[in-house]
Amino acid sequence: MPFSHDMVYSLATVVDLINTSPEAGDHDALADLADLEAFVRLRRVSGVAALTPQDLAEVVELRQAFHAVFTAPDRATAISRLNTLLGRTRITPSLTDHDGFPLHVHYFAPGASVAEHLAADCGVALAHVLVEDEWERLRTCAAPDCSHVFVDESRNRSRVYCDSRTCGNRIHVAAYRARRKA
Ligand SMILES: [Zn+2]
Ligand SMILES: [Zn+2]
Prior knowledge:
Blueprint lengths: L4 H14 L14 H10 L10 H18 L4 H13 L3 E6 L7 E5 L5 H18 L6 E3 L8 E3 L12 H18 L1
The structure holds zinc ion (ZN) (2 copies).
Protein name: Zinc finger CGNR domain-containing protein
InterPro entries: ABATE, ABATE_dom_sf, Znf_CGNR
Pfam family, one: zf-CGNR
C-alpha cells in the first residue's frame, strides 16, 4: 500500500479500536477506564493526560463512528461519514520525532483529549485510504462467526479474513470437513 509507516500505524490503531466493540468482537473490550488505559498504552497514543470517564465515553462514541465508516454500504457513504467525523475534529498538523520514532506528522491539536487525538490521526489516515481510492480495503471478516474489521494490505486486495491463522484456517478446516462428508 502506498501509505507511510505512521499512516499504517494509525490504520492499525483504528482497527484495534473498532475491534474492541461488542459489535465487532464478542464483548466490550473498552468497558472501563482500565481498559482504555491499556489501549492507550498498547497503541502508544502519545501526549495523553490522565484519563477520565468522559474520555471513555468519547472514545466509545468515536469507535462507533469509525465502525460506521468501515461498514458503509458504499464509497460515497464512507466519504460522507468520515467527513462528518473530521468536521467536528480540531486538526493541527505538526512534524515530530518523539520517543525515537522517525520524523512523522501528528494531526491532533495541542491539548487534545484521547478521543480528539484518535479522531484526528486515525481520521486523516482513513481519509488518505479514500483519496487513494482504496476504500474497498476497509473490510469486515468474512468468517460467519466473526465481525472483526481489518485493512486488507495484500497486493491484489484478496484478503477476506481478519486473521488467516485463526478465521481463515478455521474456515478451511470446515470446508475440508464438508467436502469429505459430501
Ligand atoms: Zn507520534
Ligand atoms: Zn475473523
